[in-house]
Amino acid sequence: MEERSIAIVCYDGAELLDIACVTTTFTLANLVGELPVPYRVTILSPGGRPITCGPGVVLHSGQALEQFAGPLDTLVVAGGLSWDQAANNQRIVAHVRRLARISHRVTSVCTGASLLAAAGLLDGLRATTHWAFADQIAERYPRVQVDADPIYIRADNIATSAGITSALDLMLSLVQEDHGLTLARHVSRHLVTYLQRPGTQAQMSVFTTAPPPDNDIVRRLVDHIHTHPAADLTTAALARIADISVRHVTRLFTDHLGQTPARFVRQSRLTAAAHLLTTTTLSLPDIAACCGFGSAETLRLTFHRRFGLPPSRYRAAHRSAPPT
Questions:
Q1: Among 74, 108, 148, 214, who pairs with 113 as Cys (CB 3.0-4.6 Å)?
Q2: C-beta separation of 15 from 82 below 8 A
Q3: C-alpha distances in angstroms, 198 versus 201, 212, 214, 243?
């Protein structure tokens, strides 16, 4: 039987959830889609040895990394707390480089981006990784344009995803690329997750968003809103960007997102503000300016009205501790 091969490079200290997000997504795609050309997922490890993923958690490998020769559709490199040791292991890195040459797509999960960087595969490219390790990886690999904000980034046939469960978002996007939106949506329902957060969505966003709309115009406007929160995002401005009427923009947002453009913009800006509150020391006026609110007071009132607490209390409760 013809198969679409997915290989996951693992090592001692790899994060089990990084791996499971990949294996479960493609396994469910096989089951839900009854695919004529199913995915075949193989876990690779140095020497084919079992790997320790955490206290009391041992994962058996499907094949030795050194012996795997393809064919290969998608290469996935898992992340984990031992990413620095793995990236310094020239044997592992050499085989990642070798497999990348024969793979249709090359991807990483979380700190697995460090192995792609060590292999020279991300030189000159924009890439993402877990926000807590982004500065370390950027310092170690200055040729890589590390962006800690997006959930995933795709550059040609190379894709990097952020922390751990963002692998679901990236893998669902690959299923959609291979088999269309309908199957990807069915898989996401079985995973009980959203299909799929846009790659541009901030890693630290704590507010759920709707699945990307089927309509191309709405999807393009949604992406613009997420990536340009400080811009003019009035309905009239969105209509000019899409080269359609204001009435048509309103109708499209209502039909595909269940809300008006103004309400969607407000929610997107609040998400961006929450991200900056928890990941930066920017003042409230600066955050308001970055996220398209007219003033700190407007941000404060809007935030409290939507979430029931002021930005200062949210920052105190959710601010991320610096990595040790």
A1: 108
A2: no
A3: 5, 7, 13, 23
290 is annotated as an active-site residue: no
The residue among 301, 267, 263 whose CA lies nearest residue 284 is: 301
- Which helix (H) or strand (E) element contains residue 9? strand 4-9
Dihedral pair phi/psi, residue 57, rounded to 5°: -115, 110
Q: What is the 3-state secondary structure (H, E, C) of 66-97?
A: CCCCCCEEEEEECCECCHHHHHCCHHHHHHHH
Quick check: helix, strand or coil at residue 47? Answer: helix
Q: What is the DSSP letter of 15?
A: -
DSSP 81-139: TTHHHHHT-HHHHHHHHHHHHHEEEEEE-GGGHHHHHHTTTTTTSEE---GGGHHHHHH
Binned average pLDDT, 10 residues per bin, the chain of 324 residues: 89 96 96 91 96 91 93 96 96 98 96 97 94 91 89 88 89 91 88 61 46 82 90 96 95 89 91 84 92 93 79 72 36
Which residues lie below 8 Å from residue 280, measured CB to CB, with a gap of 6+?
287
* Angstrom distance (rounded) from CA 239 to CA 229: 16
- Marked catalytic residue, from 10, 53, 110, 291: 110
pTM score, whole prediction: 0.64
pLDDT of residue 321: 40
Distance separating alpha carbons of residues 66 and 97, to the nearest angstrom: 12
Q: What is the DSSP string of 163-178?
A: STTHHHHHHHHHHHHH
How far apart CA 87 and CA 14 sit, in angstroms, is: 12
Residue 131 confidence (pLDDT): 83
Q: Which of 81, 272, 250, 266 is nearest to 163 (CA)?
A: 81
Closest CA to 303 of 269, 278, 280: 269
Q: Is the peptide bond before 71 cis (omega within 30 degrees of 0)?
A: yes
